[in-house]
Amino acid sequence: MKRICVFAGSSAGNDPAFAKRTKELGKVFAEKQIELVYGGAQSGLMGVMADAILEKGGKVTGIMPTHLFQKEIAHPDVTTMIEVETMHERKAKMSELADGYIALPGGFGTFEELFETVSWAQIGLHEKPLALFNIEGYYTPLMNLINHAIEAGFVPEANRRLILESNQPNELVKMMKL
């Protein structure tokens, strides 16, 4: 696995642990020579992740739709910046380049990317690993909801394996079979 797509907030959130732990994951990427593929922003956890990798000499590919270049402020130091027209093109390009996915804490955009990716895995459009970096239990309520959906009969029990989860960067990367 050479490239991992990371979905993350364009905000850093209220808890300083989000940024601190994101930096730890970025350092693991750089140490293991994993290229980051992400939304291309300089702000929030997206920027924290990119900066942590770049500071250690790692590679970062940003993918950003033209209309977001001003709103999200494109990261000026990424190794490669790919400009696309639409959000659909952004997600398609990220998926094309990535060998797997990790979701960090984030908002609606992160949730949308996460659920689209797991839905694609569920219907067989890809077989790439997908993991949640569960910093400070951020994704615990979501995992509870997923378990509830399984118990209620809306998600097959076998599909629980589609989402890996850890709060430890090294373990998370190892779980993805690197």
UniProtKB/TrEMBL annotation:
Protein's UniProt name: Cytokinin riboside 5'-monophosphate phosphoribohydrolase
EC number: 3.2.2.n1
One GO term of the biological process aspect: cytokinin biosynthetic process
GO cellular component: cytosol
Gene3D superfamilies from the UniProt entry: 3.40.50.450
Pfam families, sorted: Lysine_decarbox (PF03641)
InterPro entries tied to this protein: LOG (IPR005269), LOG_fam (IPR031100)
Family: Belongs to the LOG family.
Any one Gene Ontology molecular-function term assigned to this protein's record: hydrolase activity, hydrolyzing N-glycosyl compounds
Keywords for this protein: Cytokinin biosynthesis, Hydrolase
